[in-house]
Amino acid sequence: MRDAAASGEGEILEGIRRRAAVERRGGLVLGIGDDCAIFRQRGAREDLLLTTDLLVEDVHFRHDTHPPEAVGHRALARGLSDIAAMGGTPRICLLSLAAGERADARWIARLYDGLLRLARRTGTILAGGDLARAEKTACDIVVVGAVPRGRALRRDRARAGDAIYVSGRLGGSALGLEKGAGRAWVRHLHPEPRLRLGVFLREHVRASAAMDLSDGLSLDLRRMALASGLEAAIEPPPRFPGASLEQALHGGEDYELLFTARPRAKVPARFGGVPLTRIGAMRQGQAGAVYLSDRPLAALGYDHFRDSR
Amino acid sequence: MRDAAASGEGEILEGIRRRAAVERRGGLVLGIGDDCAIFRQRGAREDLLLTTDLLVEDVHFRHDTHPPEAVGHRALARGLSDIAAMGGTPRICLLSLAAGERADARWIARLYDGLLRLARRTGTILAGGDLARAEKTACDIVVVGAVPRGRALRRDRARAGDAIYVSGRLGGSALGLEKGAGRAWVRHLHPEPRLRLGVFLREHVRASAAMDLSDGLSLDLRRMALASGLEAAIEPPPRFPGASLEQALHGGEDYELLFTARPRAKVPARFGGVPLTRIGAMRQGQAGAVYLSDRPLAALGYDHFRDSR
Description:
2 copies of one chain form a homodimer. The first copy, chain A, is of the alpha+beta class. The first copy, chain A, contains 8 helices and 14 strands.
């Protein structure tokens, strides 16, 4: 078994990060490696969060099965979920759309309808983008959010002894993709970015670390543990009705939040109807190691440069 | 002959703009329709410029002919050129890369090398991005720049009587694409974003309007005239050595600046070695109409939704 976070996408990103040689200059507070970059303008009371996410035909969606409104919704939801993970509030978004051969003007209009519906509901303004032709469709969503200066939630701030939580029930998106119908399919098509929860975690829970679950709990928790220099020990997470343990552990695109908090932090059992479940704790040990019920858990979440879907 | 700015890409973008129903709220000063969106944070002395640009395999470059370093350079240059067009200074960039089947780890590393070389030279920090697999490569570059509050150069501010200028000599990129060798090919592979010129036009020339030439003078000038509610009358622009008049008028990807200034504004003949040439004037008339030597000029620049390359 190859080690996902140390190969494939992880390795390539690490190489880029080293070459980018990011220093804390030019207003950049945090660069490559978290859900968003953090940018600080002189005089501003808020830090800006910037994130960009790709959605590629035949990788993240299929033309035959995914309605264009859902493609637009999911494109924006991916970016909003990154803003939620850092406790931010979305402000504006830009969409770059390479429209594939099967994406006609009507299909494109419906994609924007789905995107704009979610944008309106979350107070996000579509401020621009780019449009080009391609063989297959690829969308890149850019979201800019804001968070009070110095208060963004990061994935590298978990401490030994912190409790580990997840929002919602996991594996729904993977189950939906398998079934292609029913509640899980709806969940797959219309993930709900946990924006209000992210703000709550920052303001009230004072979470020590947070990130969103985009590539599967096993891989994402490994990334958080690695960034924080700790190991993580968990029990099986709550599952979406009908999802297998495998789907809950390794299925991607749930867009729930993974976060840590001091052991005595007051974390309600639910927030806005979404369960918040303590699944384990961070501890000293081998940075990035994850244990499920005391046995090593392989990071089988989705890695674009190892897997193919 | 169809009317490019009123069909194809123009029509689709206009539909999106209407549906986005952008209002001046949430810090957004300028939305869809210019080179960059303008975003203003409370308390900040500078406005932020945001732009996103796609570069798609077999549309904007070919794997067999374009070295990966040049693809990286051109991806970033596209975004930087938008910042230059508004008189801004680049701060950070993010690259979303959907790596195609022929893009192996070595090719990707070389793409980042080309991008990072230009980034370093222009003071732009690579702050993040996304990485995914796809059949063909698509890069989306996001650049965030800054400009003193309320001072960004826009394309919709030209006034009747203003002189029209272009930087550099046009048609080099189109000629290079045709030849595949020589100086024009180098020009095509390594366009130089006119960042210092953009700042000079804002600070010293006090240009009334500006935009970059990405889709060809005929189409881009039409867009500026349309945005400003004027018509434009020009003479043949300076040509890159060897380029035809057609290439200079309609060839895309020159990334020179098109700008207007009051008739008595002091515009030097050269700036930083780049010629600045007066090619005509704006006047009252049919918004968006362009005349070359007193004859109507069709907007034959590149439109992704009308042409195929």
